[in-house]
Fold this protein.
Amino acid sequence: MLTLLLLVSILFFGCVSDTTDSTEKREYPMTVYQGSPVNDHAGDSVRVEVYHFHGTHQCSSCIAVGELAEKTVNTYFKDELKSGKLVFGHINGELPENKGLVEKYGVTSSSLWIGTYANGEFHREQNVNVWYKINNEEEYMAYLKGVIEDKLAG
């Protein structure tokens, strides 16, 4: 049973590769998730969350998805981050304190998710297209910038 749990954990939150040396433990600043109340008093307020979900050990592709997402939001959305209209975080899905967020988003593996609060509703979406752009930083950032701008626009 323990072996099965370990295998499921690796498949969901780790990168499986040919050698164990190809994954690395990556430390990110702690993201403290405190819920996401919908701040929608006037009916026109939109809030967007961009979360890089990952395991404790990540392959280079998983690391690239998260680092490029972080670089994108820090480059193009400083004001939105500062105001709280946009939230970004690296979320280790293996940690028990992140269980609620993992369940809320329906996370099953390393991934990039975008949650949007608008008109009193919450919508979540996994963005798989970023994985195809990790080898071209400029293309990745332009693509994700456009996605986030669309979400912020409502």
